[in-house]
Amino acid sequence: TTTLPGSGDSAVMLNFAKTIPGAKRLAVVRHVNEWADAKYKKVEEGYKAAGFDLVADVQLEAKATDATSAVLKIKAANPDATMFLLYPGESAVFLRDAEKYGLKGPFIGTTSVQDLQDLADRAGSKTAIKDVYVTSFLKGPVGSPDLAQYTDIYKKQFPNDKVQSLSFYGMSGALTVIDALKRAGRDLTREKFIAALEATKNGDAGPAQCQVNFSPERRQGCLEGTIWALRDGQIVNVGTSWPKAKS
Question: Which of 151, 165, 178, 205 measures 20 to 30 Å from 140, CA to CA?
Answer without folding.
Answer: 178
